[in-house]
User: Which sequence fits this backbone?
């Protein structure tokens, strides 16, 4: 409303100015004398101004006629579109002006204005390859996804704009969560433009999410071929994909192919812990223990990890604790002061029931860098040395609140995983899991298997042996109850309150004790440690 009023005022002011100027010229004395070829003209001031304007118009018309004459001559010489271009020149100018206005509106976030300018540009230019893209992006900006999809489908009809149309529909399917269709469209877009980096990244991510590891490796190879990926990054990611493919082959029972892919993954990235672990297990299954030990030593030198220690133990599963302790010296001498090495040595000594040596190996780790695993190891040492149950219970209580230590953590979203995976389960990022301490106190079920890996494995072996042995049947039953073992004493103490209040038996029966909620979890942890440290309970009691 204000702009319309302002335009009316400007128009009235212009008319008033022209009228005032014409009046001033009519009242001015004098004039202009023009003499040409014996012809003399005397013009007044107003007539002179009008003559100048007419001369300007005549010159403009003359230039237009000259341009038309040039276009006609070009048409005669064989340029079939010369005359049509001459008459369409003004339309093109208006069309390109509308196109520029549409781009400016699109950049400023005015979706509706951009759509209107694109329609105007299409009216003048008749070039959909220029205007449809603006229309599609403007429709998406304004929330009209159906209109955007229609425009993208029109772009598919032209070879020059087919990639843009496929890419636009692919992004719409990704936003809708239809990853299956999006992956097929990404493959089509990749076939049209293999060098397009965004399409390469999108296709690689979708293939990893769908566990198409062989296709992802081909896409990764294309990224390296076209210079979109450094060679060292390519080797690392190719190792991750090969390892994931080996896992799938192992689950399918194709062991030979799985061994080949696991060894290839370790060759590409020797410091990748899961690849080294699987390659070592493959070598062990292939009866090549020396190759397995060499792979694990190299990975341990790069980054000590409990999974590597478990794989190193699996090379010779039938050895006794003393032999294992001797064989592990080749591994533990690499990083003797690393916390992982110190905890590993403590576990080996505990398995051999050498508790003073285990305490020496652990050192001050429970004070300088306490974790649930190191504190649990200390509780096992205390139990093995015959410490009071209160001391063991104190260490276990401390283990419940201690940090879990390093875990598999996503570098993008910070999600903690119980086991390594190529794709984060939370944010679906590819190759973002690192072995580190999480920023927040998070626990996972899988993390418990990383605690005491060697001793737990030894316990499982002994438990299987005990299940295979037939149970002994007592020859005589007596009324006297058997003496409770150390584990039963610990569980009984946990169920019994510290200071029970009872009355004499002649007055009333004792009230049943209610265990504290926090103590129940503590008893489970304590009993677990006791079973780990002393699988041969009778020998320990003797």
Assistant:
């Amino acid at each position: 409303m204000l702009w319309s009023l302002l335009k009316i005022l400007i128009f009235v002011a212009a008319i008033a100015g022209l009228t005032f100027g014409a009046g001033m010229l009519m009242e001015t004395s004098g004039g202009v004398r023009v003499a040409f070829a014996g012809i003399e003209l005397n013009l007044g001031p107003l007539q002179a101004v009008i003559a100048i304007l007419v001369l300007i118009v005549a010159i403009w018309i003359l230039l237009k006629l000259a341009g038309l004459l040039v276009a006609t001559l070009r048409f005669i010489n064989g340029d079939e579109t010369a005359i049509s271009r001459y008459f369409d020149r003004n339309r093109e100018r208006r069309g390109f002006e509308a196109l520029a206005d549409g781009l400016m509106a699109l950049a400023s976030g005015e979706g509706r204005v951009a759509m209107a300018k694109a329609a105007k540009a299409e009216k003048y230019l008749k070039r959909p390859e220029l205007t449809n893209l603006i229309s599609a992006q403007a429709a998406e900006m304004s929330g009209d996804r159906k209109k955007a999809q229609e425009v993208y489908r029109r772009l598919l009809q032209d070879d020059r704009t087919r990639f843009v149309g496929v890419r636009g529909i692919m992004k719409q399917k990704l936003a809708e969560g239809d990853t299956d269709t999006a992956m097929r469209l990404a493959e089509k877009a990749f076939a049209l433009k293999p060098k397009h980096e965004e399409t390469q990244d999108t296709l690689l991510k979708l293939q990893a999410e769908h566990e198409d590891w062989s296709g992802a490796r081909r896409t990764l190879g294309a990224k390296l071929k076209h210079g979109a990926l450094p060679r060292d990054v390519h080797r690392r990611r190719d190792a991750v994909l090969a390892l994931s493919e080996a896992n799938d082959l192992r689950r399918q029972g194709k062991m030979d192919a799985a061994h080949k892919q696991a060894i290839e993954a370790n060759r590409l990235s020797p410091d990748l812990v899961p690849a080294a672990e699987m390659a070592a297990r493959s070598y062990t299954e292939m009866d090549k223990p020396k190759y397995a030990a060499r792979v694990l030593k190299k990975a341990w030198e790069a980054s000590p990890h409990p999974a590597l220690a478990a794989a190193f133990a699996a090379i010779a599963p039938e050895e006794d604790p003393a032999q294992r302790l001797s064989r592990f010296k080749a591994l533990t001498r690499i990083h003797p002061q690393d916390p992982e090495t110190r905890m590993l040595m403590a576990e080996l000594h505990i398995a051999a029931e050498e508790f003073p040596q285990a305490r020496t190996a652990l050192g001050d780790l429970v004070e300088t860098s306490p974790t649930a695993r190191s504190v649990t190891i200390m509780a096992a040492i205390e139990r093995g040395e015959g410490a009071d149950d209160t001391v063991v219970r104190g260490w276990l209580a401390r283990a419940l609140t201690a940090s879990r230590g390093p875990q598999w953590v996503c570098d993008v979203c910070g999600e903690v995983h119980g086991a390594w995976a190529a794709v984060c389960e939370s944010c679906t990022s590819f190759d973002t899991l690192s072995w580190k301490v999480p920023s927040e106190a998070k626990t996972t079920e899988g993390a418990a298997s990383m605690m005491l890996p060697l001793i737990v494995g030894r316990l499982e072996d002994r438990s299987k042996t005990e299940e295979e042995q037939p149970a002994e049947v007592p020859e005589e039953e007596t009324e006297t109850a058997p003496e409770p073992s150390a584990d039963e004493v610990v569980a009984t103490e946990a169920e019994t309150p510290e200071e029970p209040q009872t009355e004499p038996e002649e007055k009333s029966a004792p009230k049943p004790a209610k265990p504290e909620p926090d103590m129940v979890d503590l008893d489970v942890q304590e009993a677990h440690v006791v079973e780990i440290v002393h699988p041969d309970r009778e020998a320990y009691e003797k």
Summary: The chain has 26 helices and five strands.
